[in-house]
Design goal:
The chain has a single domain, classed as 3-Layer(aba) Sandwich (Rossmann fold). Helix content is about 40%, strand content about 10%. A five-stranded parallel beta sheet has the order 3-2-1-4-5, with helices on both faces. β1, α1 and β2 form a beta-alpha-beta unit. The protein starts with a strand and ends with a helix.
């Protein structure tokens, strides 16, 4: 148990919520950071707020960035979200739901907050197994970013404080992630994974993220409490 400060990137989704629970279980004093970046699934921010409150984080900030100015993604432009893709094709190529440089942008803000908090640790819920082919979810990207971060901050250059980027889910399947979260008491009914939810937050059930979530719960032998709550 460390009691060290850590910044946790919290989208309000399944993975980031699990990572927050892991960071807390390891004794970190957690600070959550979320982003309003022009995403169509902005309902996730309300989920992030509830999760942060439930988890008693020491601070929760929502950063406003308008990535819709650039577009280039079905999440930040008027491009249709792909639906109904077979599970076996989800990691074949980079889908249109990839947001250009999103994790690089998010990690830059997390790095800045971590330095002002005198925190040496950032937690991120990227995954390189059951994921949709995003290049900024790979171990080599995380390693390169961590190396860069330790060249770029005063805390590292002058103070000898080495930043660590924790990615505890990166080599886990979605089923393993869910099992880990359930063991830690995570309430997945508070989360949102859908790329194209309805006005009431109801998941579409057909986008890549919904398909991967359903696959994970099925393989974990668990019932998704979110679906149980949104059914009429």
């Amino acid at each position: 148990m460390s009691n060290q400060k850590a910044v946790v990137l919290l989208s309000g989704g399944l993975d980031s919520t699990t990572v927050l629970a892991i960071a807390k279980s390891e004794g970190f004093a957690t600070y959550a950071m979320s982003f309003r970046y022009g995403q169509r699934h902005v309902v996730e921010l309300e989920c992030a707020r509830r999760i942060a409150d439930r988890s008693s984080v020491l601070g929760h900030v929502v950063v406003d960035i308008d990535l819709r100015q650039f577009g280039g993604s079905a999440l930040t432009a008027d491009i249709e979200v792909p639906k109904g893709r077979p599970e076996q094709t989800l990691s074949a190529g980079i889908p249109i739901t990839y947001v250009p440089a999103r994790n690089t942008v998010f990690l830059s803000f997390a790095l800045a907050w971590a330095e002002t908090l005198d925190a040496s640790d950032i937690f991120l819920g990227v995954n390189a197994l059951d994921y949709s082919g995003y290049p900024d979810c790979r171990p080599e990207y995380i390693g390169a970013y961590e190396h860069m971060a330790n060249l770029a901050t005063r805390a590292a250059v002058e103070g000898g404080q080495r930043l660590r980027i924790h990615t505890p889910l990166i080599q886990l399947t979605k089923a393993q992630i869910i099992a880990r979260g359930l063991a830690l008491g995570v309430d997945y009914g508070l989360t949102s994974s859908c790329y194209d939810p309805g006005p009431d937050g109801r998941p579409c059930g057909a986008c890549d993220s919904c398909v991967l979530r359903a696959k994970g719960f099925r393989e974990a032998g668990a019932i998704d409490p979110l679906l149980a709550r949104v059914r009429p």
